[in-house]
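[[Sequence with tokens]]
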Amino acid sequence: MLAVICDFAIILTNFVHLNTQHSEIKGILSFPRNIVILTHRNPDGDALGSSLALMRYLEKGNHTVKVILPSEYPNTFSFMPGIEKCLVYDLKRDASMEAIKKAEVIFCLDFNGLDRIDKMGLEVSESKAKKILIDHHLDPEPFADYIFSETTASSTCEMVYQFIVDLEDKAKIDRDMGECLMTGIITDTGSFKYSTNPRCYAVAAALKELGVDDYTLNDRIYNTYSEKQLRLLGHCMANRLEVIPEYSTGIIALTKEDYHKFQIGRGDTEGVVNYILMMDGIKVAAFLREQPTIIKMSFRSKGDISVADMARNHFNGGGHKNAAGGAAYAKLEDIVNRFKKELPKYVDKIEL
């Protein structure tokens, strides 16, 4: 009985805390402000969708809003309403920094630490603006004044929808916002294959009721590969895929030479890691890319295998249980060997 009372007390405390946060934020947004929305480097569908939907919502409240991306976004997402308004820090550094300096409110979406926004992180940490974090990754850093962190959420887009609802502004969510939010939900769940929850489907249903065409969105997101991307994918599968059957694992490692041969650009390798998991019996996928000065890594897994733990403990990264990433300044061969060495700690060996 005591345990039940304690659990209820915790739930009640969290409920009161969230209500207080929403009430204070409603006060902050009750008159026009200069607002900046930030998301992580190499923005994906969830980062872009949540940022653009929130931008449109805030503009309806007569706020001056700028979305700033640390780096360019994949051309795949160029269809998203409002994306042409975004500032890209790598291309317009002075304008980006000036916007942050003028900001009275800064929203931080889809990232849990200031290192994810590169050099803008220092400017944000020193800013006197009210900072609001909305994110679904593990272990958020306590740099924001208001933190909305839900690791069970499918996506930050799901959370932004709920954030607007909790501000009692559901009626302001229109079809354009819905397209942005649905894009993030589709991409972060792999078209509802993982990281889903009941609210995720409820939000998707509400967006469908607004007229959002999820079929068309899926077509725009997944059926716009270029010839170069398909040839690269074929190269990955035919020449770079290594299977470790006793650990139900597949690895693809792209070299600098591969980048040069295929003229790989931003977004060209998007989704490659997911193809590894399509093989029967494969439970862990690793996709390593040798870039000029750093090795980038993407990890995926099925079931109870936590690639987030592996990324955090060995590869300076993190993420979700079944989808994580990392980076290291080392030789590609050394990182591949390190991954193979650490693999038995996270995956049970099977007898073949």
In short: The CA atoms of residues 235 and 241 lie 9 Å apart. Residues 12-222 form a domain with the inorganic pyrophosphatase (n-terminal core) fold (CATH 3.90.1640.10).
